[in-house]
């Protein structure tokens, strides 16, 4: 089988859930001997030249992007990216059995000769909004998503939440493709680098992600202001939190944008709890990565988070509720060491049993092998 992957960038050149998903999918298909071509937007086409991935052909594509001050620049740039990738694929010598399209980059893939599988991930543009600005922003992307669903042969879904949305939007055929994580085999059974220091009972909590409205960071900052002087803990932010949004305190550490997986995994390994108070999500890679490092999770009940988090490995709460977030964090901070260790172990077992890349890609290939 030959697969073409279409993506708006690849991790670690570009940070994001779709980009990380693309990278891991490429690596998994390569390991299985699937001939794969990747057509992706890149600002630095030489970025991956030193990386040799067997069975994979890389087609980095550049565009002359419109500047941020140009009205409607994001949507226009998205269209330009999609159109250029489509033309590059058509003009290439690669003839895939199927084209796997990541996110909204499939906007212009209409009336082509290719069989297309689109993965719109969490379909966040159709999830509940918590402000007028957010609602207007989401509505701008809904027609594009509907267009992609209408003109794609297949749609991927993470779980029951996204399957329900796609059925409401009249998707043609559905393929089950949950998100996944690569287990790094450097944790011995029962061990957790973020164990309590018995002398001061101080624990480490962490947020991992971008700074945008739907991530709920201002709400998290409000809660931290109320908790920081009452408990022994450190809180680590991994992501591009701007200075004007930061709460400066000795217990709050800002690491900025990070694209080195080893450093990110080390911080997750040292943490006892990941906190993700999002207003909308798909099936977050950051939760899966934290779970693979035996970390307990506090997350909101949005997207497919309930597939990953329950009372056995953390706390799942309603979105945009400060009281619920504060209560969950207080419960974590008051928990006995063994409770958090057990939750972390349950996190690890859940991803090991259900959400590793080898299992998920085999599941995906078994579905499409029956179709093509």
Write the layout of secondary structure elements.
Elements: E1 2-7, H1 17-31, E2 35-41, E3 56-61, H2 73-91, E4 98-102, E5 116-119, H3 132-151, E6 154-157, H4 160-168, E7 174-176, E8 203-208, H5 217-227, E9 233-238, E10 252-256, H6 261-270, E11 273-276, H7 285-292, E12 296-300, H8 305-308, E13 314-317, H9 322-334, H10 337-354, H11 357-369
Parallel strand pairs: 1-2, 1-4, 2-3, 4-5, 5-6, 6-7, 8-9, 8-11, 9-10, 11-12, 12-13
What does this structure look like?
- It is a single chain.
- This protein has 372 residues and is of the alpha/beta class.
- The chain has two domains: 2-180 and 356-369, Glycogen Phosphorylase B (Rossmann fold, 3-Layer(aba) Sandwich); 203-354, Rossmann fold (3-Layer(aba) Sandwich), CATH 3.40.50.2000.
- Helices cover 38% and strands 17% of the residues.
- The protein has eleven helices and 13 strands.
- It has helices at residues 17-31, 73-91, 132-151, 160-168, 217-227, 261-270, 285-292, 305-308, 322-334, 337-354, 357-369, and strands at 2-7, 35-41, 56-61, 98-102, 116-119, 154-157, 174-176, 203-208, 233-238, 252-256, 273-276, 296-300, 314-317.
- Strands 3-2-1-4-5-6-7 form a seven-stranded parallel β-sheet. Strands 10-9-8-11-12-13 form a six-stranded parallel β-sheet, sandwiched between helices.
- Strand 11 (273-276), helix 7 and strand 12 (296-300) form a beta-alpha-beta unit.
- Helix 5 crosses helix 9 (322-334) and helix 7 (285-292) packs across helix 10 (337-354).
- The longest helix has 20 residues, at 132-151.
- The protein is globular and about 60 Å long.
- The protein starts with a strand and ends with a helix.
- Mean pLDDT is 91; it is low at 196-200.
């Amino acid at each position: 089988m030959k697969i073409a992957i279409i993506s708006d960038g690849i991790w670690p050149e570009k940070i994001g859930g779709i980009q990380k998903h693309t990278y891991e999918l490429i690596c998994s298909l390569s390991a299985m001997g699937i001939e794969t071509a990747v057509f992706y937007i890149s600002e630095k086409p030489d970025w991956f030249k030193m990386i040799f991935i067997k069975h994979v052909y890389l087609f980095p594509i550049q565009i002359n992007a419109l500047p941020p001050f140009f009205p409607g620049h994001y949507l226009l740039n998205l269209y330009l990216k999609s159109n250029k990738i489509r033309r590059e694929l058509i003009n290439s010598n690669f003839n895939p059995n199927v084209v796997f399209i990541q996110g909204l980059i499939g906007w212009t893939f209409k009336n082509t000769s290719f069989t297309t599988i689109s993965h719109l991930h969490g379909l966040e543009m159709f999830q509940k909004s918590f402000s007028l600005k957010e609602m207007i922003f989401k509505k701008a992307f809904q027609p594009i998503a509907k267009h992609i669903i209408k003109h794609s042969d297949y749609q991927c879904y993470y779980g029951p939440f996204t399957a329900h949305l796609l059925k409401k939007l009249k998707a043609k055929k559905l393929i089950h493709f949950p998100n996944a994580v690569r287990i790094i085999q450097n944790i011995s059974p029962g061990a957790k680098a973020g164990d309590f220091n018995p002398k001061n009972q101080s624990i480490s909590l962490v947020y991992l992600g971008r700074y945008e409205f739907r991530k709920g960071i201002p709400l998290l900052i409000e809660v931290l202001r109320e908790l920081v002087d009452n408990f022994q803990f450190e809180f680590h932010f991994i992501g591009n939190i701007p200075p004007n949004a930061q709460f400066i305190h000795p217990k709050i550490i800002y690491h900025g944008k990070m694209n080195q997986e080893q450093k990110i995994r080390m911080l997750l390994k040292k943490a006892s709890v990941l906190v993700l108070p999002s207003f909308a999500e798909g099936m977050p890679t950051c939760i899966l990565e934290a779970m693979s490092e035996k970390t307990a999770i506090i997350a909101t009940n949005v997207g497919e988070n309930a597939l990953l988090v329950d009372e056995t490995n953390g706390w799942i709460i309603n979105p945009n509720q400060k009281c619920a977030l504060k209560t969950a964090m207080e419960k974590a901070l008051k928990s006995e060491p063994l409770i958090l260790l057990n939750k972390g172990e349950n996190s690890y077992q859940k991803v090991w049993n259900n959400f590793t890349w080898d299992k998920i890609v085999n599941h995906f290939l078994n579905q499409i092998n029956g179709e093509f």
